[in-house]
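Before a colleague's protein record goes any further, I have to sign it off. Thanks in advance; the entry in question is below:
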Amino acid sequence: MFDNMKIKLKLPIILISFALISAIITGVISYTYAADQLTLSAKAKLTALLESRKESLIHYFDIIKQDLAFHSKAPTTRDATIEFINGWREEGSDSETILQTLYTKNNPFASGQKESLLDAEDGSAYSVAHRKYHGYFRNLAATHGYYDIFLVDTLGNIIYSVKKESDYATNILTGQWKDSHIAYAFTQINRNPSVNNIYLTDYFRYGPSNNEPEAFFAAPIHINGETYTGVLIFQMPIDALNKVMHVTAGMGETGETFLVGPDKLMRSDSRFFGAKSILSTVVDTDSVNKALKGLTGIQFDKDYRDAHVLSAFSPISYMALNWVIIAEVEKNEILHALNELAIILTAAMLIGVLFIFFFGFYFASNISNPISNMTNIMERLADNELDVNISVTQRDDEVGSMAKALEVFKSNAIERDKLQKELTHMAHHDMLTGLPTRKLIMDRLQDITSESDKDEQTFAVMFADLDNFKTVNDTLGHHIGDEVIKSAARIFKESLKENDFVARIGGDEFILLVSNVRDTEAALEVANKLVIAIKTGLSVVCATIPVTLSLGVAIYPEDADDVTSLIRHADEAMYRAKEGSKNRCSR
């Protein structure tokens, strides 16, 4: 791109470009760092809010549980249950119809206010009990935030309720509401009416209460802590739960906390959808799915409104409830301050660009002009004008240093070629033996393979490995090992023809190329001679430890017709020789 551009133009462009790139990189890093810090801060805050809501929710249920346990054991509840049961029985087999007529159908108060009736004034024992205890239970429900309070006898008859809705005076085991969750709560207690047994249902829509979401808390009632006589049930509306979850302090404009059940339906109302959310809005997000598996964490996710949010999630279990609690805030709100900062940084960068542009051209020109003069001098030197006057040597800056270096380059040019040849030789030959290395033998094999393919020549590749060499090194020392390697290399060269080739490719591994072999027998004959020569020659160098040769032979093109396959075949043959008795060749 810049190869054909004059340095007077190239240098300013490069300087300005690098300055701009540096500014952009700095801006991006600053933006990324700030985003990370804001995200970390938001995560810490959101996690703390999630834990706070979780603790508040458990505390809310604990208070109700304690309240239920207290009132289920209270003398007032016990006495009321006994008197309501007696009044129910006094009405006979038509007790359900009679009581519904008195307290529901003929109730003078409007629907939703029927709890205002204190006494049906029919003179019955039931109405006497109702006048005596109704104010107590109605006040308990109103002050503690319960939608309704029920007393149920052991047969499943709702002998009392505050609200007097359509479930009042019915049997929840056989009647219209036998499949409702109040019936389920009663059944759980009725099966095990031990003193401390308490059961809580999940929130579901309850028909008698305008099909609103309700949950039921149930506990057994005992006489003197012994005789099981009925069940006390609190009906809890969603409003109290929403108050716990809808605390917006610290949540900003888009933050909220909510609950999700195992069916992935909301168990508290959305801050944004209102009362239409609970048991209607499906929340099938990655955060919810992880929390339902028992995981706790925080991540960016896409929520039930298709908004990109930072979502903190955790499972929450209380008695029979297994819910998920979610705290989230929109990503855009988290990064709002950062986006404003990005605008300021962009404006500052544009101002900086103008400054860099003008300063860059001035500074680059001050450098490029003397460099251009140096270029002319170097071009003349490249044309072998070695008598050229390097006038800039009088300069004291880097350009003057470059001119002095040119004088040194001129005197070192002759030596460079000699040194290059020596380095090339060192790169392709083993320092200990002077033999070619793997690179050179591979090139040679590639060449002879191509030549032999054309001329239909046969040659052998031999993979050689010295037996017991490691023992020599470990026992006698590496200096003896080096002598063994050098002697082996000398024996190989002396044993092969002038056109043959030997290379050292590892510690005690060699590759031998034997050209123009007549057939397999001729190749094996050469191999056996090498085995004998190594054993005889190395016995002089290392008399105490016998160093022998394991040799693998591959014939071209009989065993393989490419370099890689030939070497692999020879290597495998060598290992077969070692696995045998060593000191031999194998094919």
Q: What stands out?
A: The longest helix spans residues 7-72. DSSP finds 15 helices and 15 strands in the chain.
